Amino acid sequence: MRAVIFPNPGDLQVVERETPSALEGHVVVRVEACGVCGTDLHIYQGEFPARFPLIPGHEFAGVVGEAGQGVASLRPGDRVVIDPNLNCGTCRPCQRGLTHLCRNLIAFGVTNDGGFATHCALPARQCYKLPADMPFDIAAMTEPVSCCVHGIDRAQVRPGETVVIIGAGLIGLIMLQLALLRGASLVIVSEPDSQKREVARSFGAAVTVDPASEDLSTVVMKATNGGADVVIDCVGGAITAQQAMDLTSEGARVLLFGVAAPDETIQIKPYELFSREISVTGSFINPFTHSSALALLASGRVRVSEIISHRLSLDEIPKAIELLASRQARKIIIEPQRVPE
Question: For residue 328, what are the contacts with CB-CB under 8 A and spacing of at least 6?
Answer without folding.
Answer: none
